Every structure is written in structure tokens, then in C-alpha cells.
């Protein structure tokens, strides 16, 4: 085992991440309402097509819905958290399902059974010494709000969201310190059904709808930050970006400019949440794309006065772009279109593996905002093989994570302030995009296949022991 001098702060928050909609199951248990994933089929029945056209989800009945049982974390969380505690987790990232608290989103009173579930979950985390890191809306706007109001394109959702925030902030004010307002908020532009509970199919001006919905979410995030600090001044409120630096395909200045514009698309959201105002470049973008935001009185003031405390982000890969449309043939399988980088290997799902890109991304974000960072998603989706003796030798996952942890440490040495690291899918769960189980990220294997078959039994992978040593040494032992 190779030793290296630790570059990680003494109280660095090592842990792992999941999301309610991808692991809890129990889709109508204890009064829960429908969430977007609850109407999505599996990969074999066109999940991506339904994501792109939400009307299909409402009009069709499918044979199998992966989220309905998922990995049954709702009933098995004590067992799962005990395994995470065995690895040494200092923090556990999950989300609250909005539809468990307000089944229709606009209910007069919250659902007590849903509130109690999260009381019990957070108590169990704290019993094991794990700080809950909670996403308020992780692709989880209640379906009823989409049906009855059109989702986040309707300004009324700000009030419904704030009512939800008021309830959970007060209920868990002594149990949860770290909150994220929206998961991968920039995904609203790419998967509006997930990101905002909106359907843009057939709309005359979809960009207008998406950016108006974005404005509503940004105002809601700022008002939630204000509310949180009023309820408990010790709360730390963060935003969350689907991040990954975009490289120019060549040193042609046009390629360099194309890469800058690609990164700005995501930074747009964080510029508002972290700096408190719309960036200067947005004026030209709105003008040239005929986007006219409807602002209410006081919107700009609340954005200015209530920026987030820290910036969290997901990082799976870097991206590559060209200004030449003939060159710009996109890779398949990625939400963010990208050229294939000849210097990088790719995962089985086409994500290009770039550990140094994490260091680059961390430095770029920190240089831009000078706020603490939190890496709340990172990992390798892969098909795992269970051997005859029950072992799962996922050395490929260890290799991926080792090099990313190494580069994270280098970024901290560069001067980047980083609070913690929660690799994605620390226990196997249902893929958000494809609905698959075979696309596994976890340190903990769950016996379930793409068709919903299996015992749901949990078992440790080789990476379980590796990550346990990483945490136990505070990042000093990664080899």
C-alpha cells in the first residue's frame, strides 16, 4: 500500500450519494403522490422516448416501472446505512421526495407519514455519525403540479416549493445542516420533464419556456436560502451543477469560443445563484434568442441578497466540442453532446474518463466563484460480474475512483476549498436516464436486474474495502 501525504482537510466529509426517486421504491406507500420517475418505463420500453415526450408517460400504461420498487431503500435503509457506516461515511447525500411530503404539491397540510419517514432516516444517519446532505428537489417535482399547473413554467410553483421548504426546514432544523436547493439545475435545459416537470413538445418557443422556468427556480432557490437562514442561521445552503469542463477540439479560436459558450450554458445558473445576478453575457443570449423573461417586482433583489453558501456539483466526464458542424458528430449515450476525445478512454455507456478534468473543473469553478465546493456526484457506471464465490471484483471502479480522488487532492493543494466528496450510487440503484439496474455505480451490490428480478440482497464489492481504507486514512491511502 503506497502512502502519500494527505491533502485533505481534517474534517473532510467523505461519503456517498443516492436520490429518493432512484432508490426508495414504495412509490405509493404511506400516502405518497406520483413523482416523474413513477410514470417512466424501463429501458426496453423506450424510457428515453418517454423522457423526451412526457405525454406518452401520461397516456400509456407500461408493463414495468423500475421506480415502483427500485431497491426498496424505503424499507431497508437501516441495513444500508449500517453498511455505509462500516465504510466510515462522514456524510450521506440523499433527497427528500416532495410527493411524500405534499402528494399533490399544493396540498394544504403535509403528509405526516412522509415526514416521519425522513425523521427516522435522518435519526439513523446521525446515530451512525453521518451528516445528512439533503437535496430538496432531485428531479422530483410532483406529477400533479405538472398536470394541474404546467410545472415550473408556472410562477405559482415558487410558492408551493417555499411552503414545502418551510415545512422541512422547520421539521429537520436540528437534524440536517447541509441542503441543496435543486439537483443539477442546468439539466432543465436538457431534460425539462425531469428538471422542471414541464412538457415542451410542440411548443412554438421552447427556449422561452425553459428559461422562464429557470427564472422561477432561481427565484425559488434564493427565497429558500433566505428562509433557511431565518429558520436556522447554521444551515448551509448550496446549489448543484452538472459540471464538466468543455475542451476545444483544436486551437482554432472558433473552437475555443465554442467551448467557452458551452461552459457558460451551465455557469449561467450558478452565476445567478452564487453571484446574485444574471451574468452580462445573458443579455445578448436572450436578445438573440428572442427570450423575454417575465420578472416580478423584487425578483432581482432577492437574487442579489440571498446567494448560496457553497457550490456543489456532479462530475463524471469532461466534454469536447468544435465550431465546425461537420466535425461535431456527437457521441451517443450522453445527456451532454460531446465529441470523442482521442486521448481518453470511455465507460461502457460512452462517458469519457478524465480524472484530470475533475481538477480542471474544480479550479475553474473555484476561480470563478470563490465559494466552497462539494463534489456530490462522481463515479463509474459499469456491468458487475458476481463470481461463483459471491465476490465482485470491480477493479475498474477502484481505478476510476482512485484517480479522481487523487486529482481532487491535487485541486485542494492548488488552493481550492472543498468540503466533501460523495460518489454517486454508493449502493446500486436504478439509473435515472435509462432505468437500468445493470448500470451499477455502488460499493454495495443489490441483487436486482433490469426486469425487476432478484432477491434485493445486499453484498459488498471489492471497492467497498478500498473506499473504507480511503476514508479511514482521510485520503492518504488510495493505492
From TrEMBL:
Listed A to Z, the keywords are: Glycosidase, Hydrolase
- Molecular function terms in GO for this entry? beta-glucosidase activity
A GO CC term attached to the entry: cytosol
Which Pfam family, any one, appears in the UniProt record?
Glyco_hydro_1
Which InterPro entries is this protein grouped with? Answer: GH, GH_1_N_CS, Glyco_hydro_1, Glyco_hydro_1_AS
Q: Where is the active site?
A: 377
| Any single GO BP term | carbohydrate catabolic process
Q: Which NCBIfam families match?
A: PRK09589.1, PRK09593.1, PRK09852.1
Name the family the entry cites.
Belongs to the glycosyl hydrolase 1 family.
Q: Could you identify this protein by its name?
A: 6-phospho-beta-glucosidase
Record the organism. Answer: Isobaculum melis
